[in-house]
């Protein structure tokens, strides 16, 4: 469930960034740090192994962009409590669904205006027209 929740979250974030940016070159500037944030827990693996109760490990466990990898590492080491796993899974799925909905909304308008960067605040402020039934 951690893997699927993390996949949903990162898919939504990457689709949203892809919808906002007009070219892959522009998106690469944002994709790099985002993907790096996913791998930060691997650089802190010695801390995760030696002191799973450390504050930074708790931050990595519950911060959405580092949570999937940190929680899976802690689960593999047997240091992830069931209540922590439940919170992380719920957080990833809820945030993943929200981000996917925003990404779809951005993609609808981003595919229309593909020659320029979108202003997310302007796009998210738009509402769909209400149609009255027959």
Task: Indicate the topology.
Layout: H1 2-20, H2 24-43, H3 45-50, H4 55-62, H5 67-77, H6 82-110, H7 120-125
Helix pairs in contact: 1-2, 1-5, 1-6, 2-5, 4-5, 5-6
Please identify the oligomeric state: single chain
Helix count, per DSSP? Answer: 7
Distance between the termini: 44 Å
Q: For the report, how would you describe the main beta sheet?
A: none
Tell me, rounded to a whole number, the average pLDDT.
85
Anisotropy-based shape: elongated
Radius of gyration based on Cα positions = 18 Å
Query: What portion of residues is helical?
Result: over 70%
* Total strands: 0
Q: What is the domain total for the residues? A: 1
List the uncertain runs: none
Strand content: under 5%
Give the helices and strands as they follow along the chain: HHHHHHH
Query: Which structural class do the helices and strands define?
Result: mainly alpha
Structure notes:
With 134 residues, this protein is mostly helical. It has one domain (2-125). The protein is 74% helix and 0% strand. The protein has helices spanning 2-20, 24-43, 45-50, 55-62, 67-77, 82-110, 120-125. The longest helix has 29 residues, at 82-110. It is elongated. It starts with a helix and ends in a 9-residue tail after the last helix. The model has no long low-confidence stretch (mean pLDDT 85). Keywords: Membrane, Transmembrane, Transmembrane helix. Residues 2-103 form the ABC-2 type transporter transmembrane domain.
């Amino acid at each position: 469930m951690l893997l699927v929740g993390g996949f949903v979250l990162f898919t939504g974030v990457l689709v949203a960034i892809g919808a906002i940016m007009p070219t892959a070159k522009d998106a690469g500037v944002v994709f790099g740090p985002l993907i790096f944030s996913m791998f930060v827990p691997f650089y802190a693996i010695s801390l995760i192994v030696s002191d799973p109760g450390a504050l930074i490990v708790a931050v990595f466990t519950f911060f959405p962009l580092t949570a999937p990898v940190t929680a899976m590492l802690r689960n593999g080491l047997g240091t992830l409590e069931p209540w922590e796993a439940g919170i992380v899974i719920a957080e990833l799925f809820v945030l993943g669904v929200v981000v996917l909905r925003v990404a779809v909304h951005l993609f609808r308008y981003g595919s229309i205006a593909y020659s320029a960067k979108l202003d997310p605040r302007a796009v998210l402020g738009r509402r769909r027209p209400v149609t009255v039934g027959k």
